[in-house]
């Protein structure tokens, strides 16, 4: 087990590495990555439960560190807290589907009301539109899942509850349907 002075020294080196990174020191960023990335990956894995997404979150966090290290203020907290707050925020954004797909832009044309169902949203899309054609090619239940998720903003859990599906099935339907839509639209 590490002693108190070792922990303080490690925190000091993270703080120093962040300050040096803010001044454009690539070696400091590399040292910070080498010392913190393995632990950060573990934290991201606990949040995201998928290694590829966890690795993406850690990578994105270090890109943010490089760009925003100047925002680190040792008077407001430790460097390690700064890093892990950025990682947590990035992981939560990934969970929320921050970059869902470009489909959201197209579906925004048909902004639904709360009482409007998925079928009415699809009907409101342009008859000649490529998205409408591709959505019509999906199984009706899967089409409803896509519209509820992207036009009504339902989370995976809300979608599963609304459709009476297990959570894994709802996620799988969305993933497969999005792949089918991407293929159809390309």
Automatic annotation (TrEMBL):
The organism's superkingdom is given as Bacteria
NCBIfam families, sorted: sigma70-ECF
Provide the RNA polymerase sigma-70 region domain boundaries: 32-101
Q: What is this protein called?
A: ECF RNA polymerase sigma factor SigK
Record's keyword terms, sorted = Sigma factor, Transcription, Transcription regulation
Q: Which InterPro entries match?
A: RNA_pol_sigma-70-like, RNA_pol_sigma-70_dom, RNA_pol_sigma70_r2, RNA_pol_sigma70_r4_t2, RNA_pol_sigma_r2, RNA_pol_sigma_r3/r4-like, WH-like_DNA-bd_sf
Which family, according to the similarity comment? Belongs to the sigma-70 factor family. ECF subfamily.
The keyword Transcription belongs to this UniProt entry's keyword annotation: yes
Q: Where does this protein come from, organism-wise? A: Methylobacterium crusticola
Q: Which residues form the RNA polymerase sigma factor 70 region 4 type domain?
A: 130-181
Q: Pfam families, alphabetically?
A: Sigma70_r2, Sigma70_r4_2
């Amino acid at each position: 087990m590490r002693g108190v002075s070792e922990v303080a020294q490690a925190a000091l080196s993270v703080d120093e590495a962040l300050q040096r990174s803010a001044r454009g020191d690539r070696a400091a960023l590399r040292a910070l990555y080498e010392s913190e990335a393995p632990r950060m990956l573990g934290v991201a894995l606990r949040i995201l439960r998928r290694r590829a997404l966890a690795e993406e979150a850690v990578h994105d966090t270090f890109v943010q560190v490089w760009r925003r290290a100047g925002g680190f203020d040792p008077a407001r907290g430790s460097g390690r807290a700064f890093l892990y707050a950025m990682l947590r925020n990035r992981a939560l954004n990934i969970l929320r589907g921050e970059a869902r797909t470009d489909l959201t832009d197209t579906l925004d044309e048909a902004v639904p009301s709360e009482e409007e169902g998925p079928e009415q949203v699809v009907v409101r899309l342009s008859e000649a539109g490529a998205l409408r054609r591709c959505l019509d090619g999906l199984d009706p239940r899967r089409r409803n899942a896509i519209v509820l998720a992207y036009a009504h903003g339902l989370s995976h859990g809300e979608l599963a509850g609304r459709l009476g599906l297990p959570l894994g099935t709802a996620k799988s339907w969305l993933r497969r349907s999005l792949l089918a839509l991407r293929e159809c639209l390309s």
